[in-house]
Amino acid sequence: MSSNYLDDPVRLKEFITLEMRAAATIEEHIAFTREFHDMGAKPPVWQSLPAVIEQEKNRLPPGDIDIETDCIGQEILADSLFEKVIYNLVDNALKYGGDTMTKIRFFSYESGGDLIVVCQDNGEGVPGKDKSRVFDQGYGKHTGLGLYLSREILSLTGITIAETGEPGKGARFEMKVPKGAWRMTGDGA
């Protein structure tokens, strides 16, 4: 407890710094939990994939990272918090991509009737030892909730997500949207 070190300014400063970090972490957890408390409470809705990507791209701080999308005309049936998934994928790339990362790219393709939506960057990638754990609750350098909750949001409508990138060559997250949970609109058909 910092009050035990009132006569030792160096130790007092160390304790106050630790207490401030703990308070900031608690505040992050509360804010994050508040955002996701309605997960699954509403029925899924059809959402324009390119519009959600564009919206979330514009919410992030401007920088030197090019965020592009080749997704045109796809709508997916997903929880109303789907936008948070896209935000988390881009935010994670910005946090963990490293100094050499210059690009984040979204694209999609059809595979056996499913739609595969890919978020790929050209950063450092996810180390092999971490691939199986990136979606675990509490894993990571910050709250450890972003990818965990993203997977949970997607699972509400049968969408799966996996990290399939090659370490050292960038992260690659693939979302598999099952047949019937995606469609083409007039914008890309």
What form results from the Cα inertia axes? elongated
Number of domains: 2
What fraction of the residues are assigned to beta strands by DSSP?
A: 15-25%
Largest sheet: spatial strand order: 2-4-5-7-6
Q: Mind describing the biggest β-sheet? A: 5 strands, mixed
**Which percent bin holds the helix content?**
25-40%
The run of helices and strands is: HEHEEHEEHEEE
* Corresponding CATH architecture of the largest domain: 2-Layer Sandwich
- The Rg value, from CA coordinates, equals 19 Å
* Low-confidence residue ranges: none
At the fold tier of CATH, the topology name of the largest domain is Heat Shock Protein 90
The overall average pLDDT, rounded, is: 82
CATH class of the largest domain: Alpha Beta
Main structural class: alpha+beta
Full CATH superfamily name of the largest domain? Histidine kinase-like ATPase, C-terminal domain
